[in-house]
Amino acid sequence: MARSSPAAVLLVDGYNIVGSWHDLKKVRDTEGLEEARRRLTEALMNYSAYQGYDTRIVFDAQYRDCPSNREVITSYLSVCYTDFGQTADTYIEKTCSAFRNDLRKFHSRLIVATNDRAQELMVVGYGAECMSAEQLAADVDQVALQVRQKRKPTKKPTGRFLSHSLDPAAQKRLSEMRFGR
Confidence class of residue 35 from pLDDT cuts 50, 70 and 90? Predict the structure, then answer.
């Protein structure tokens, strides 16, 4: 099934977010950078699908000895590692510049999630919207809450017996069967 045009392209400054979210910073300091990257990716997976965003988490190559690459995690989420010597900021700015001349801009938004003020000013000049790390965290938490609420059963059983969870008509029929009616 072909996916329709995304509601927005969300570019996430990966290490900036890892350094801004308290829980990810703690993971980075105790379990390492790789685990912090994995947890950020996991946190954005459901969020991106729920929002319908084409999310790209961008990490600097400075912490890796590989050439640039893009790992597709889901149809809504990918992780991009920059070329050696290229920063995530530069990658994001080039993507914003290219998007400015792209016809998709008329059908979807471009959002950059970062707490880097200089980068915010630069990408706004290209027509992108900015989202702070705190706003992204709040949005991710809100979406997770909405998903949990949708999964909750609408009616909870009123007692400890299975028959209490049945609708009244089924309870009546069982009662009749029990007494041989």
Answer: very high
- Could you tell me the domains of the chain? 8-152 (3.40.50)
Name which of 23-37, 79-93, 165-179 the model is least confident about.
165-179
Q: Could you write out the three-class secondary structure of 3-60?
A: CCCCCEEEEEEHHHHHHHCHHHHHHHHHHCHHHHHHHHHHHHHHHHHHHCEEEEEEEC
Tens of pLDDT along 117-128? 999 999 998 889
State how far the Cα of 6 lies from the Cα of 29, in Å rounded to an integer.
35
Give the other-Cβ count within 10 Å of 169's Cβ. 8
